[in-house]
Amino acid sequence: MTDHVLTVSPQHPAPGVLVLVVDGELDHHTAPLLAAALDERAFAPGGRLVLDCAALTYCDSTGVTVFVTAYQRALATGCRLALAAVNEDLARVFRIMGLDGVFTFVPAAGDALREPDDR
Protein backbone atom coordinates (compact mmCIF):
# COMPACT_ATOMS: atom_id res chain seq x y z
CA MET A 1 0.00 0.00 0.00
CA THR A 2 1.33 3.39 -0.98
CA ASP A 3 1.50 6.19 1.55
CA HIS A 4 -0.20 9.30 0.27
CA VAL A 5 1.76 12.13 1.81
CA LEU A 6 1.28 15.79 1.03
CA THR A 7 2.33 18.90 2.88
CA VAL A 8 1.30 22.44 2.10
CA SER A 9 3.50 25.12 3.63
CA PRO A 10 2.54 28.79 3.43
CA GLN A 11 5.18 31.46 2.92
CA HIS A 12 4.75 35.23 2.84
CA PRO A 13 7.74 36.60 0.89
CA ALA A 14 6.21 40.06 0.41
CA PRO A 15 3.11 42.03 1.42
CA GLY A 16 0.07 40.78 -0.50
CA VAL A 17 1.87 37.66 -1.70
CA LEU A 18 1.23 34.13 -0.55
CA VAL A 19 3.30 31.18 -1.71
CA LEU A 20 1.96 27.71 -0.95
CA VAL A 21 4.70 25.11 -1.23
CA VAL A 22 3.07 21.86 -2.31
CA ASP A 23 5.24 18.86 -1.44
CA GLY A 24 4.44 15.21 -2.14
CA GLU A 25 1.62 13.39 -3.91
CA LEU A 26 -1.53 15.28 -4.87
CA ASP A 27 -4.24 12.70 -5.47
CA HIS A 28 -7.78 11.89 -4.39
CA HIS A 29 -6.50 11.05 -0.90
CA THR A 30 -4.54 14.27 -0.38
CA ALA A 31 -6.34 16.83 -2.56
CA PRO A 32 -8.61 17.84 0.37
CA LEU A 33 -5.49 19.05 2.23
CA LEU A 34 -4.55 21.47 -0.56
CA ALA A 35 -8.19 22.48 -1.01
CA ALA A 36 -8.45 23.24 2.71
CA ALA A 37 -5.21 25.25 2.63
CA LEU A 38 -6.63 27.29 -0.25
CA ASP A 39 -9.96 27.72 1.55
CA GLU A 40 -8.14 29.11 4.59
CA ARG A 41 -6.43 31.74 2.48
CA ALA A 42 -8.18 34.80 1.19
CA PHE A 43 -7.92 35.37 -2.53
CA ALA A 44 -7.31 39.06 -2.04
CA PRO A 45 -8.12 41.47 -4.87
CA GLY A 46 -4.81 42.65 -6.27
CA GLY A 47 -2.93 39.99 -4.29
CA ARG A 48 -0.73 37.24 -5.62
CA LEU A 49 -0.95 33.54 -4.94
CA VAL A 50 1.82 31.23 -6.08
CA LEU A 51 1.50 27.46 -5.91
CA ASP A 52 5.08 26.22 -5.76
CA CYS A 53 5.05 22.75 -7.32
CA ALA A 54 8.81 22.10 -7.27
CA ALA A 55 8.41 19.27 -4.75
CA LEU A 56 5.14 17.92 -6.18
CA THR A 57 5.93 14.32 -7.14
CA TYR A 58 2.54 13.22 -8.46
CA CYS A 59 -0.78 14.80 -9.43
CA ASP A 60 -3.92 13.02 -10.59
CA SER A 61 -7.13 14.48 -12.01
CA THR A 62 -8.41 15.31 -8.53
CA GLY A 63 -5.35 17.46 -7.98
CA VAL A 64 -5.82 19.17 -11.33
CA THR A 65 -9.39 19.95 -10.25
CA VAL A 66 -8.03 21.69 -7.12
CA PHE A 67 -5.77 23.81 -9.34
CA VAL A 68 -8.69 24.71 -11.63
CA THR A 69 -10.85 25.65 -8.65
CA ALA A 70 -8.05 27.88 -7.34
CA TYR A 71 -7.83 29.51 -10.78
CA GLN A 72 -11.59 30.17 -10.79
CA ARG A 73 -11.49 31.69 -7.31
CA ALA A 74 -8.49 33.84 -8.19
CA LEU A 75 -10.18 35.07 -11.36
CA ALA A 76 -13.40 35.88 -9.49
CA THR A 77 -11.58 37.91 -6.85
CA GLY A 78 -8.93 39.63 -8.97
CA CYS A 79 -6.08 37.74 -7.33
CA ARG A 80 -3.14 36.79 -9.56
CA LEU A 81 -2.36 33.08 -9.52
CA ALA A 82 0.78 31.43 -10.82
CA LEU A 83 1.98 27.84 -10.80
CA ALA A 84 5.72 27.62 -10.20
CA ALA A 85 8.22 24.88 -11.04
CA VAL A 86 5.69 22.52 -12.62
CA ASN A 87 7.49 19.33 -13.67
CA GLU A 88 7.35 18.17 -17.27
CA ASP A 89 4.90 15.32 -16.58
CA LEU A 90 2.35 17.66 -15.04
CA ALA A 91 2.99 20.32 -17.68
CA ARG A 92 2.17 17.70 -20.32
CA VAL A 93 -1.14 16.94 -18.56
CA PHE A 94 -1.99 20.65 -18.56
CA ARG A 95 -1.15 20.85 -22.30
CA ILE A 96 -3.29 17.79 -23.13
CA MET A 97 -6.21 19.25 -21.18
CA GLY A 98 -5.80 22.67 -22.82
CA LEU A 99 -5.01 24.28 -19.48
CA ASP A 100 -1.58 25.52 -20.54
CA GLY A 101 -3.32 28.59 -21.98
CA VAL A 102 -5.28 29.18 -18.78
CA PHE A 103 -2.64 29.13 -16.06
CA THR A 104 0.40 31.34 -15.66
CA PHE A 105 3.46 29.10 -15.35
CA VAL A 106 6.78 30.36 -14.02
CA PRO A 107 10.07 28.47 -13.64
CA ALA A 108 10.34 29.22 -9.90
CA ALA A 109 8.22 30.87 -7.22
CA GLY A 110 10.49 33.92 -7.13
CA ASP A 111 9.82 34.53 -10.83
CA ALA A 112 6.13 35.10 -10.08
CA LEU A 113 7.11 37.91 -7.74
CA ARG A 114 8.98 39.68 -10.52
CA GLU A 115 6.02 39.55 -12.96
CA PRO A 116 4.60 43.01 -13.72
CA ASP A 117 1.17 43.85 -12.30
CA ASP A 118 -0.28 44.96 -15.65
CA ARG A 119 -0.92 41.51 -17.09
Average pLDDT for all residues: 91
Q: Mind telling me which CATH architecture this is?
A: 2-Layer Sandwich
* Structural shape: globular
Portion of residues within helices:
25-40%
CATH topology: Transcription Regulator spoIIAA
- From the helix content, strand content and strand pairing, which structural class follows? alpha/beta
Query: How many helices in DSSP terms?
Result: 4
- Spatial sequence of strands, sheet with the most strands: 1-2-3-4-5
Strand percentage lies at 25-35%
Distance between the termini: 45 Å
Kindly report the name of the CATH homologous superfamily: STAS domain
DSSP, total strands: 5
Question: CATH class, anyone?
Answer: Alpha Beta
CA-atom Rg in angstroms: 13 Å
> Main beta sheet, described?
5 strands, mixed
**Runs with pLDDT <50, length 5+?**
none
What does this structure look like?
The protein has 119 residues and is α/β, with parallel strands linked by helices. The chain has one domain: Transcription Regulator spoIIAA (2-Layer Sandwich), CATH 3.30.750. 34% of the residues lie in helices and 32% in strands. A 5-stranded mixed beta sheet has the order 1-2-3-4-5. α1 links the parallel β2 and β3 (48-59). α1 (31-40) packs parallel to α2. The chain is globular, with a radius of gyration of 13 Å. The chain starts with 5 loop residues before the first strand and ends in a 6-residue tail after the last helix.
